[in-house]
Structure formats: C-alpha cells, structure tokens
Amino acid sequence: MNQDLTTGKPSSVLWKFCLPLFGSIVFQQLYNIADSLVAGRFVGENALASVGNSYEITLIFLAFAFGCNIGCSVIVSQLFGAKEHREMKTAVSTAGIASGILCLVLMALGLLLGRQLLLLIQTPQELMADSLLYLNIYLYGLPFLFFYNIATGIFSALGDSKTPFYFLAASSTANIAVDILFVTAFQMGVAGVAWATFLCQGISCVLAVVVVLRRLKAILVAGPVPLFSWPMLGRIGRIAVPSILQQSFISVGNIIIQGVINGYGPGVIAGYSAAVKLNNLVVTSFTTLGNGVSNFAAQNLGAWKLDRIRQGFRAGTKMVWALCVPLAVAYFFAGRWLLLLFLENPSQAAMDTGLIFLRILSPFYFAVSVKLVADGILRGTGAMTQFMIGTFTDLILRVVLAATLSALFGSTGIWCAWPIGWSIATFLSLVFVKTLKLEKRAVA
C-alpha cells in the first residue's frame, strides 16, 4: 500500500514507516549471519573465517547496489510527493536500465579479479580456496542483489515499507533452512551456504520486481511514458554517485582494515568475522532507518513542507535511540553468548577478539545512529556535499587510526578506530543539518 509521508504527525508517520524497514534489514542481515553461523558451527572456524574474509569484498558490490537504491528512491520520493507520476515512472525505468548495465560490468570485473582482490587483503593461503569459491557464487547472484535493491527503493519511495518486509521475512527464514540442508545433508561446505543465499535471494528478487511493476502499473498517467531519459539519469546520478562513493570507500576502507586484521592469523580473523556480523546488523539497521528518514525528507521536500523535515530529524533521533538501548546493552553484557552462535568450540584468540570488539564499539551506537539519521536528512534534501564530507571524515579517520593504533596496541587498537571516527563524523553531520538552508533548496 502506497503511503503519503507528507501528512500526519511526523513521529507517528516515521515509526509506522520505519519499523517495517528495521524488520526488513534484520532479515536481510540474516542472509549473511546465517552463512557465517552455519559455516562456523557445521563446517569449522576456517570456514567462518573464509566467509567473513570474502564478505568484506562483497560489500564493494553491495555499495553499488545500495547507491542505485538510494538514487532511485530519493528521486522517486520527490516526484511522488510532488504528484509528478509520469516523470516518476520514467525515473524508475531509467534507474532499472542503468543499474542492469552497471551490474553486468561489475559482475564481469569481479569474476576476473576475485583472486587478486583476495590477495590484496592478504588472505591466508589456507583460506584462499573457500574465500574465492564463496565470492564467485556471490557474484553469480549479483543481478538479484541489484534489482532487489531497486525494487525495495521504489517501495520505500511510495511509502510502502511493509511489502519488502514480507518478502525478506520469508526468504531469509528459508535461507537458514536451506543453508543447513546444503551443508549437513549434502555436505557442500562453504559452497552450500553460498548457493543457499543465491537461491533464496533470487526468489525474493523476482517476487519483489513483479509486485513493484504491478504497483506502478496501477498508477495511471496521461500519454506515453519514456523508458529512458538522460536528464533523469543525471538527476538520479547526483544522488546515486555520492552514495555509491560513500559505500564503496567505506568498503575499500574495510578491506584495508581487513588486511591489517589478517596479519594476526585465523583466530583473530574468525573472532572479528563473528563480531563484525553482529556490529553490521546494528549499523545497517540504523542506516536503513536513516534511509527511511531520507524518503520522509524527500517526499516533504517535493511537497514543499519544509517544517516537517526538521520535525522528522528530531523524531528519527528519538526512534534510533529507543533501539540503541537494548542493542548496546545486549552486545556489551551478553556478547559471549551471541558470539557462540557463530563459533563452535572457539579458540581463545577468537573469543577474546570478538568480546573486545563488541565492548569497545557498542557504547558508541548512540553516536553513529544520530549521524545516520542526520545523513538521511542531508541525502533526502539533496545536500550531497555535506553528506560526503561527514562520510569521508569517518572513513579516513578509521583507516588511518586502525593502522596507527594497531602498531601501538595490537588488534585492540584497530577496534578503537571505530568510535573515534564515528564521534567526529557525527559532530560534523549535526552541524550540517543545523545549518541546512531548506528554504533555498529546490527539488533535485
């Protein structure tokens, strides 16, 4: 069901819209969590390390899919809020065509350069074969990833956060069952968890695309709708490219950090792989809620209801902090039991690494969650320069500090880079939102 985000009390509208988004990203993360959980418990610690090692490279491709999602979603939100439905449909088809071409290029490059990327991050020899196998199967499913992200971006732009939730709840639950089936019954090892994700994500993608096309068909417009528009691609690109760069450079930064971590051996890699999955579940959830704030801001910008945008920022901050409390407490005090979901008879190095990582980062979830809500406002209103400054500040600090502090304090120094980068970047994003001149900003 399409929803107009330009009417109603902002806090109530955001809660109603964003809670299914939060549920969706929890189930989305279950894909990766299930892979690591099954690999760690049913195959072994090296299998967990291999999946986690490949995961950092898959984030590069996810960055492009995410950028296409955001670029399409923000522009479609603005056009939907402005009731410009004909242009909105052109934006959807333009984004789909451009994303499909980009996906094929990335797929080819990934399959050609996968081994070189794994060597670049100093993948241990004993992990190379399984890491490359997992990465290649992931790349075969890249079209599903791209078009699913486009579909969910359109659903969000139309104010519908429930339909993607239903798809993900079903497919991610099925993924866990298929993971276990392929690994335990068919003895497929790391390949089993990769093919399970490929199969379940593919089904989810096809269903999402079919439903979104039917939803768009029901919105009637006068006259023919152009399938592709270069000016529209430019509008989408002004949002998508900075978002792609943001996520890509974060992924590159994570790969550099992964290279530093790999120097400490399989035990530390496995502990980090387990803990970072838990951390990414939280941060990605906040990112998704920030994307919901982006849709809210974009629709209200399109409708020229500027007061509601700042009200949405305040409501969004309260919303993410309500989620921060139980998550931070659980990670800080119950981290050992959460890590044991991934680690069967873990080595002391793996368990110590995971616990230290979670206890250092979890208190700072309150800071990074506010940054991601602020980023949602900046992105939804087209303030991409400010958005990029905050993002790159966080990234550069984390990469530089990880390398520097690891030389002084070992692997613990690497984990300290996260809260420092988050805190400084949060301050910058808050300043940018506070000084944002909405009355001078037209629809992108």
Automatic annotation (TrEMBL):
It is found in: Cell membrane. InterPro entries: MATE_fam (IPR002528), MATE_MdtK (IPR050222), MdtK-like (IPR048279). It is a multi-pass membrane protein. The lineage of its organism: Bacteria, Bacillati, Bacillota, Clostridia, Eubacteriales. The keyword ATP-binding does not apply. PANTHER family: FMN_FAD EXPORTER YEEO-RELATED, MULTIDRUG RESISTANCE PROTEIN NORM-RELATED. It comes from Candidatus Avoscillospira avicola. This is Probable multidrug resistance protein NorM. One of its GO terms (biological process) is monoatomic ion transport. It comes from the Bacteria.
